[in-house]
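Changelog note: in this version the structure field was regenerated for every chain. One regenerated record is shown below for reference.
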Amino acid sequence: MNAEPQERDDAHGLQPLGSLAQSARLKQLNVARWTLIVIGVITIAVNGYQFVILREEVGKMNDQTRNMGNAQINQAKRREIEGQVSMATIMIGGFVFLGCVFVVLGLLVKTFPVPITIMGLVLYLVGNAATALADPTLVMKGAIIKIFIIIALVKAIQAAMAYQRELNAETYSPDLT
């Protein structure tokens, strides 16, 4: 209904929209973008730190097993430690990868708003479920922050769906001017 032609923002594939509500939804998508990027960066940083700590702990455990007198116990303990370290390394690597995925999702959220925001929430919940399975004591750590992140991602999904609905309505409605 706007007589002026709308320009396209080719950097993100989004059209600037005239309605105030649509501009608020776009701001919410920006919040979603930064939420996903921050989740990704924090996930990468925390797991990178855990990897460093893991290596230090392995060194300490190796020193302890060397000091044990019995060679059979020493070898059995070493195999047990190696198995635990391998599993922890795989889990840490998986979470670092997940952090990278969150960053990429954040960068792409304006290109594919609805699928990206849904994927972000699902991956966040799956990551927390995996953490809970690995160590149930971590479920309640940072619970308030986790709740705020989930709320932000749900609001981002709502904003993305409304944005997409409005964009589709503008695209498919005839211009009556």
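Spot check on this record: The chain has one domain: 23-169. The CA atoms of residues 70 and 126 lie 43 Å apart.
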